[in-house]
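Run log, item B.
One chain of 177 residues. Sequence copied directly from the ordering sheet:
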Amino acid sequence: MSTWDDMVLVGQIARAHSRFGEVIVNPSTDFPAERFAPGSVLHVLREGREEQLTVAAMRMHQGRPLVAFAGVETMSDAEALAGAELRVPEDALTPLSEGAYYVHTLVGCEVVTAAGRRLGVVGAVDGSAGGARLIVGAGRDEIQIPLARDICISIDIERRRIVVDPPEGLLELNSRL
């Protein structure tokens, strides 16, 4: 069984939506229709205890999932969930095609150049699949590296290592002075 810290964030409850206990979710997944489908089990941490919530119904509302959970039937019940993170065990994630990665698997990876220069550790991934960037380092030492096959020539999730071959000037251009 997964512990809370080992689970993957898939969304956060923004607020209650109706007197029937529905909530609006800010998704942290590329698969909201699948992740929040009726019958899906999500985990929340309330008052220091992990709880499971089962999705009873879901529809999209202004680009975000509007979710009803089994047992959450009133506005007060829904308001008590506001701000709660929704997580799932990693093995519940949808398998991705080769060359696609979940953000949480990239964060924490060491980044080195093909020549062996250590650039730092991925602290975040900014953007979406079509224009994602690895945010390496922090503060004055932050470097933004496009997550592109021509630049990120080797991504080894198991070894937590990404080898990059950036075009001339990219590292200096993106560093914050």
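Observations after the first pass:
- The two ends are 45 Å apart (CA to CA).
- The CA atoms of residues 16 and 79 lie 5 Å apart.
Flagged for discussion on Thursday.
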